[in-house]
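Schema walk-through. Below, the input block comes first and the output block second. Nothing else is stored per chain. Lengths vary across the set, and this one has 431 residues.
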Amino acid sequence: MKKKFVKPALISGTLLSIGFWLGQFNAWLDKHSPSNVPDATSTPSREPLYWVAPMDSNYRRDKPGKSPMGMDLVPIFDKTSDDDGIKVSENVLMSFGVTTEKITRGRLERQINTFGFTEWNQESIRHHHPRIAGWVERLYVKTQGETINKGQPLYALYSPELVNAQADYLLALKQNNTTLIAAAESRLRAFQVQDDFIQQLKQTKKIQQNILTRAEYSGVLLTLPISEGMYVSPNEPLFSTASLDEIWVIADILESYAQQVTTRLQADISVDAYPNHTFRGDIDFINPTIIDHRLNARIRIANTQGLLKPNMLTHIRILLPPLQETLLAPTQAIIQTQDQDRVILAHGQGRFTSQPITKGLSSQGQTQILKGLKAGDEIVTNAQFLLDAETQTLTAIKRLNSEASKNQDPKTEHSMHDMDHSTHHQHMHHH
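--- output ---
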């Protein structure tokens, strides 16, 4: 028998708990809404369910009066409607700052906002190795990061093998042997001896102990592991250079955008150093390896003015193809939960209902609506969370009331009726 009375008790406790929070919200609503107080001219008139203290919804009375804090008790009215919605007075809507907007059909401009870093154009990096062993007698570049120009002197190298190669060339010239001359010239060029040096040697007939090497291209000195007096060989690089004419930007993109990001998409890039300047380039490569749920895309940027430097933080906006003729809703109006996204529909005259939706892509404050709404529907864009809390609470109370009614055991009521009838019969028989 005890089990038959446990469920109603639990349901009653749940109803009281939910009623507490509903009372808190209702008290605020009615306190700020003079139109909720019964008016003699209203048709039909409504009677309050009870009166509650503005600061404590547990303090209830069946008639007007004062709260323990000396404040006037606030009337609470029954909220009934044809569905699970609520009706709110105009004064309360103004107090909450409720705003609405209609669902429209239009073009959704899409973009991905992310960040990245600049780096050297890896294709422009060059490593310089000597073609012959020797000693660096003179070094004309001193600092890593230094800018070098084409034709600029880099270093002077002394190599006994180069001295011998010059001597062989002069001997071939003296013998006027064209075959030996050609072979000697080829040998000097194999050692990266430049043509102007060979012409000078041919004219002066004087062997140079140190061979000067000039820059074949302009760029920035990336590495400089040598210094004057060092012995160098073809196995070790003398220095490395790279060009700033083009910079790569490596964009860091969430894995969820993997299907939308493709090559040849345009990207606008800005850096904090030049806030009013926008750099523009195209994605030309997407790394197929995803690390920590993120992928990297490479964007080439022309850097003719040399404003961009490697390792700068960049703000990136990747422009995606727009969606044509789709239902659009303000993103801020959508109430996102783990189980179901929803919005608050405005029906006019202060009536609101909660409407589940299925959303698609979002961009620039607009969200694609796949299911649940149609063009022309009016939804709440501000204070929707307060209205949603009220509608969800009322829905929960209605559901619990329905379950409580279904869980009433008719056998229990019949047994209690038979017990009362038997007691009454025994009492009459005793008399």
